[in-house]
Amino acid sequence: MLCVNLISAFSLLWVGGWCLDLKFPPGFQFGAATSAYQVEGAWNVSDKGENIWDSMLHSNPSLISDGMNGDVSCDSYHQWRTDVQMAHNLGLHFYRFSVSWSRILPTGFPNRISEDGAKYYNKLIDGLLKKGIEPVVTLYHFDLPQSIQTLGGWTNPLIADWFADYARIVFRLYADRVKTWITINEPLIMCDHIYNLGNVVPMVHEEELGPFLCNKNVLLAHAKAWRIYDEDFKPQYNGKLSIANNPIWLDPASEKDEELTELAREFGAGRYSDPIYSAEGGWPPSIEKIMAEYSKKQGYPYSRLPSFTDEEKKLIQGTYDFYSLNHYTARLVREAHKNETPGPWFVAGSKELNAVLEIDPTWAYTDLSYLAVAPKGIRRQIKWLKDRYNNVSILITENGFATRDPDLYDTGRINFIRDYLKEILLAIKEDGANVIGYTVWSLMDNFEWMFGYSLKFGLYSVDFKDPQRLREPRASAFFYSSVIKHHSLDIPHSSHQYHHLKRKNLIQDKTSATSRIRVNCELMLIYTLSLAYILVKTMH
Ligand SMILES: *[C@@H]1O[C@H](CO)[C@@H](O)[C@H](O)[C@H]1NC(C)=O
Ligand SMILES: *[C@@H]1O[C@H](CO)[C@@H](O)[C@H](O)[C@H]1NC(C)=O
């Protein structure tokens, strides 16, 4: 009996991750990411067309807190060699960047391909391959050609074909060397966030139909691009494609909110994933029902969530080779109180679900209050996806930590990456999830959308006042490169490598990354043995 108790106590500890084997599975890959508008600059070189950020921030510079824009940014259009060198110094297996639609197609449409635009990505891709770094290419990362926005952007159903035209051209240019593709980045932001809040370029605020038309059109655009690749490029090049979803992990605020929380997961993650990954295809049935009833109550003769024809359902279903997961934060879900109107989805709640989203007061913050630090959320999110989508293989395509402080000694970021990676290891080793790689957002500080240059996510800092845009590695860059080199979170003497970056008067990082985990493990062992000793004593 005692023996059984002891064994179960030990296995509990093991499951709890205290004594986790910190090695990553063989073949697990590490990368870092950026996106075109956020790093390239060169907004007006040769024949590049204008995207929504170019046009909106030029005509309305006060939109960004520090009055800045991406005209020059990190100047990666000219400094790409340095970027490749940084990726090499980190030991990255892959570098995820995005192609600018209006750089390749100046008009937004396939009537003209920019020779210089095409050349730029050729140089970057070849430069990476020469260093043995795999290019992972996103086709669309928030930078819509202005011409297409003028025609209604993501709410115009024709955008699916316009995106497919663009995708085919990019595949033709680079599919011989690029084997991993992301069609579209974070539709939850593009559709739900942008249309519900209207506070991000293109600043369109329309909560009724906007998010849902966009939702459907994004799925169709992705599906058409996937099928073009599948039919015309995969037989020869054998690459893989996905769409980068960014579900926030949702936990119930209390036991009675469990059912509501699962609905909220289906409203966020499910609405963007079920049509592609589920065995039945189409919208999550629970959400379809809620939206139909809610729309009826509002007087609409149809659901605000547009239906799929059978043909559309079949077009979208199964258009994946892996699940691309961007993940940053978590929320608690509770039912709205009487007379409480939930704020906009997905930052505050959902009127349709009568649900409110909250941050657990015990969670730590980054310098962006929205991004509460909740590492356990990534493990639960991975398990939810695994269970719902038949053990789909998952590539984490973004995860990262924001600061306003440009300091190179960024222990907060190190702790964040280590804690999230530990939960990913648990998802792999304890939950049997098929996670194939991890990506830090971001390789370097860059133009963080509406926050301009005030918010920093970089493993490398960038001096935006320097004409050369000098890049310097932060402590987190040394930490991450060591994790990659050892293929493990168990890395020797991590803090010594970046001691020189420490400024005076900074709070010291008391223990190195892994010694902390080791200490936990040892303490728990001592605790268990003492418990066993007491048990034996009392039994006698
Ligand atoms: C490009 O934009 C910059 C401002 O960012 C401006 O100084 C420059 O003259 C423009 N170049 C051309 C060719 O229009
Ligand atoms: C999921 O897939 C991975 C990799 O193929 C495999 O190792 C794991 O056992 C699978 N898990 C389950 C629960 O099927």
UniProtKB/TrEMBL annotation:
Protein name per Swiss-Prot or TrEMBL: beta-glucosidase
Biological process terms in GO annotation: carbohydrate metabolic process
Signal sequence coordinates: 1-19
Transmembrane segments annotated in the record for this chain: none
Organism annotation: Pararge aegeria aegeria
Entry keywords, A to Z: Glycoprotein, Glycosidase, Hydrolase, Signal
Highest taxon above the source species: Eukaryota
Enzyme class name: hydrolase
Listed GO MF terms: beta-glucosidase activity
Assembly information from the UniProt record: Homodimer.
Origin organism lineage: Eukaryota, Metazoa, Ecdysozoa, Arthropoda, Hexapoda
Family: Belongs to the glycosyl hydrolase 1 family.
